[in-house]
Amino acid sequence: METKDAILELRRYLNLSQNEFAERLFVTRQAVSRWENGDTIPDTGTLKLIAKTFDVSVDYLLGLLIGQCQSCGMILVKNSDKGTECDGSKSEEYCTFCYQKGEFVQELSIEELVEHNLMDLDNWNRTNGLNLTKQEARTALLSFLPSLKRWKKENKPE
Fold this sequence. Notes:
Elements lengths: L2 H11 L4 H8 L3 H9 L6 H11 L3 H4 L5 E2 L6 E2 L5 E3 L5 E6 L3 E2 L2 E2 L5 H9 L2 H8 L5 H11 L4 H7 L3
Antiparallel strand pairs: 1-2, 3-4, 5-6
Helix pairs in contact: 1-3, 2-3, 6-8
């Protein structure tokens, strides 16, 4: 992912207009537009300000690192999306909804996780401009989740 894509994705994730995003960073809307179009890249100081203001890593903004929860598949955009390890450090593999203090919050089967995720399908469809039916989403999740680390580990033959 390029910096322009990371900034655009972050702004959309936060549901901010270019103007609102710019106001929080004390820059112009045109600057945000140039970043998102790839015409320019924010300088180091501005990248640090974006990271601090919106709780993301500079690595993410540079397109070097994007995490995905290896339990539910959620994209880990913000540092606060990340779960915690036993020592309180942020997990690089699991989200805060699935993993806290080095343990999974709920012991769910894949099927139970799918049904839990389907409860938010209407909101997800609205946010992503989609119109998936529950059956389409269920089929996709049942195909996708077994590829994640948590489920691979649990489904390995002994």
